[in-house]
Amino acid sequence: MNEARELLSQMNDRSREVFRRVVEGYLASGEPVGSRTLTRTLSEKVSAATIRNVMQDLEYLGLLDSPHVSAGRIPTQQGLRMFVDGLLEVRDLDDQDREKLDATLGRNAGDVSGLLDAVGSALSGVTHGASLVLTPKHEAPLKHIEFVSLAQDRALVVIVFADGHVENRVFTPPPGLTPSAMREAANFTNALAEGRTLTELRKAMQAEISKRRQEIDGLAAALIDAGIAVWDGSGDSSERLIVRGRANLLEEDSAQEELERIRSLFDDLERKRDIAEFLELTDEGEGVRIFIGSENKLFSLSGSSLVVSPYMNADRKIIGAVGVIGPTRLNYGRIVPIVDYTAQLVGRMIADRS
Question: Domains of the chain, with CATH numbers?
């Protein structure tokens, strides 16, 4: 952000205004913005030739690009980043958008997942993008953990919480796992588990394994790591990610190249890979973050942007995240307050239910 502001401060008023108008025009229409269009909207009266010279300078700086010969300009990913960091004007949340999101509070969903599903649908409907909601992990104290072998390359970890809640996940165990290593892993885990939450257990196990590595069978240690990782997001925790509104990303007149990028995004969403990274994107504190194009670690091949914000429980601890994914020409000024408000709304829902 500091780099963006520094570069903007070095530009004169005319260059800054031309750059801002090109980006705003592109975000509104998705089309390149030409010099003749700008002559009608700039605050000072200058010729189209003068504007073309300014646009060429901005192109040289890597902020604008010309998709076709003799066409207008569009912002590059670097240009969009500079605009978002230095020139973006975030609107107040629209009353109609607020009402649609608030309506989810009235849903009589039986559990938190049902409520978050409704929030995801509302967020997708309001933004006309695909919404992503990462649901919180169950953080009640633990009672018992069991590892069950299903096949040579598949195992099941079953966790029983003190409040009666039971969860299970299928995961890939370490190669060459023996029945004795599985028993040792279960005994070791249960000796530490009772009364601790999953987060507390994870920290305690890491410390204990480091201290007693010589005593613990290597396969047992690997099994513990693989089995518990699915709750930390490092494994296949796909049911924690709710995706709604993927069809909003498809347009009938989309170019073939754009459709291929969207299909790549859909593949990522179907597999729901790297869910841990979705939450890590928000781990620098509360507030909305914007990831443009290849900055987005989750969907770098899709040419999409992600606007994401964490939500917190009553103890102000980050427990999940909400976001909107769409084309890089998202209306960021409108989407940012929507995502921010949705994250606050979810936090209140979680706090009220707990």
Answer: 2-86 (1.10.10.10), 95-129+245-353 (3.30.450.40), 142-232 (3.30.390.10)
